[in-house]
Design brief:
Elements (H helix, E strand, L loop, with lengths): L2 E6 L2 E3 L4 E3 L1 E5 L2 E6 L7 E6 L4 E4 L1 E6 L10 H10 L2 E8 L10 H11 L3 E8 L2 H6 L3 H5 L3 E5 L5 H6 L6 H14 L4 E5 L3 H13 L7 H5 L2 H18 L3 E3 L5 H12 L4 E5 L1 H5 L7 H5 L13 H12 L5 E2 L8 H4 L14 H13 L6 H15 L17 E11 L18 E11 L2 E5 L2 E2 L18
Parallel strand pairs: 1-6, 2-7, 8-9, 9-10, 10-11, 11-12, 12-13, 13-14, 14-15
Antiparallel strand pairs: 1-4, 2-3, 4-5, 7-16, 16-17, 17-18, 18-19
The structure holds zinc ion.
The site of zinc ion has 5 residues, from loops.
Length: 464
């Protein structure tokens, strides 16, 4: 009997090795890996000679809307798919009613419009969402919880974030610890008290340039809170995930925690590997409000140290922290701009290929480790996701390591009309994305969304 698809002629990449192999796919799963001469026929064949086949990218960090938490799901998941992403970790802001009562509606919204699969993180923002932690794994298959440590001030008021003091965080950590694996806490680590003091000073000075963002949230503000989060997680025996690490000192803190036996996973993002305040992207000079991203961009030394952290296995995940906001939404006052950068998830893999592999900083095996296998493991969707083995979901990305692509906002697929990578030439680019055995991006062009494409991925429930 013929299988659904055979991808042949490529080099297959896993965290362990690169081997010349063909892949047979049937019923959404990987059926066989080896020599096609020993495989059954296929209804469809895809010749990828000269290219590499990687497990689909698991981008563990995306925001698909601001106050309306899934508002941009369609455009942003289509863009992510074009970048080889097959599974997204989506941060969910469940305002007022909490997540449990809104879950079916949100899941329906996601599954009606998403181009990729997704597991969700709950933003713990108030007493209600704190109390929901206990029931999330069993009731909705959600096992990761994000704490905005110390968050207050304008951004927090806007969203209604209140449960952020150390007591609330410690209480949440204790509840997660009691749940057991794969439940874990994620923490936004910046000392907001110091930020708010500096903010007042800098506003009084009339500063509005993009560099003021780093000056109002300097590296020690991140380091202090990261150290405290690790300390509290250790005290509560709670596995901890630290997203978007921007500072070289973050690598040292992670290494120290690992030596100390603390379960802490560090993530950085493409923008912190490639951008800094010393050689600013032109957009930050023409539109300083675009520089509002928490934590801020740092210096060139931080870029270098974060690459080293990945290479040495201390930083083990790369996520996009995608937060699409158009130029109009960003406005012209950095102090009032919505936070975050758009057009990142689509470029996560290209950055790793072009700036990482093709510039000799890391190898291709490492890319699959930090962009697929590790995020899937940490968040409890491995071995189904982020994995190129028989029986895993047939989520794959084909890349051409020699293809050169010049990026403009128009060449990308997000709703966001600007990018920090405007004008960059990338070497190494994804050509095909395969989700659940279906080609969803062909020759770098997204195909129309098919019914059933893009599912919510529940995770292991209590005691499983
Ligand atoms: Zn984020």
């Amino acid at each position: 009997m013929a299988c659904d698809l055979i991808i042949h002629g490529g080099q297959v990449v896993t965290p362990e090795e690169i081997v010349r192999a063909d892949i047979a796919v049937d019923n959404g799963k990987i059926l066989a890996i080896g020599d096609r001469r020993y495989m059954t026929g296929a209804r469809r064949e895809l010749d990828v000679t000269g290219r590499h086949v990687l497990p689909g990218i698991v981008d563990p960090h995306a925001h698909l809307g601001y106050m309306n938490t899934l508002e941009a799901v369609e455009s942003e998941t289509r863009a992510a798919a074009c970048g080889g992403v097959t599974c997204l970790g989506v941060y969910i802001l469940a305002l007022k009613e909490g997540i449990l009562r809104q879950f079916e509606r949100l899941k329906g919204e996601f599954e009606a419009r998403s181009f990729v699969d997704g597991f969700w993180h709950l933003m713990v923002i108030d007493t209600l969402t704190t109390n929901e932690i206990r029931d999330c794994p069993e009731q909705i298959g959600l096992t990761s919880f994000k704490f905005n440590m110390g968050y207050k001030g304008p951004h927090a008021d806007l969203i209604g974030i209140t449960a952020t003091d150390d007591g609330a965080v410690y209480k949440g950590f204790r509840m997660i610890s009691a749940l057991g694996a794969p439940a874990l806490a994620a923490c936004h680590t910046e000392n907001i008290d110091i930020h708010l003091m500096l903010r007042d000073e800098l506003i009084a000075q009339g500063r509005k340039d993009f560099r003021v963002w780093n000056d109002s949230r300097p590296p020690f503000v991140e380091a202090e809170c990261m150290r405290r989060a690790i300390f509290l997680a250790k005290s509560a025996n709670c596995p901890l995930y630290i997203p978007h690490i921007t500072i070289g000192e973050g690598v040292d803190l992670l290494a120290e925690a690992h030596r100390d036996g603390v379960s802490v996973t560090g993530e950085t993002c493409p923008q912190y590997l490639t951008h800094n305040n010393e050689e600013p992207a032109p957009i930050f000079l023409s539109h300083p409000a675009c520089g509002c991203v928490n934590p801020p961009l740092r210096d060139k030394a931080s870029n270098r140290r974060l690459w080293e952290g990945i290479e040495r296995g201390i930083i083990s995940c790369v996520g996009s922290d995608l937060a699409p906001a158009t130029l109009a939404m960003k406005g012209d006052n950095i102090w009032e701009a919505p936070m975050g950068l758009g057009n990142i998830s689509e470029l996560l893999l290209p950055v790793m290929l072009s700036e990482g592999v093709n510039k000799g900083r890391i190898n291709l095996e490492k890319v699959t480790e930090v962009c697929s296998a590790n995020p899937a493991r940490v968040f409890g969707v491995f071995p189904r996701k982020g994995n190129l083995e028989i029986g895993a979901d047939a989520d794959l990305v084909v890349v051409d390591m020699d293809r050169k692509v010049r990026v403009t906002p128009q060449s990308l697929h997000s709703m966001c009309d600007w990018t920090i990578y405007d004008g960059w030439e990338f070497t190494g680019w994804p050509t095909h994305t395969i989700l659940g055995g279906n080609v969803v991006v062909e020759n770098s062009v997204p195909l129309p969304r098919r019914t059933g494409q893009g599912r919510y991925v529940p995770r292991a429930t209590l005691g499983a």
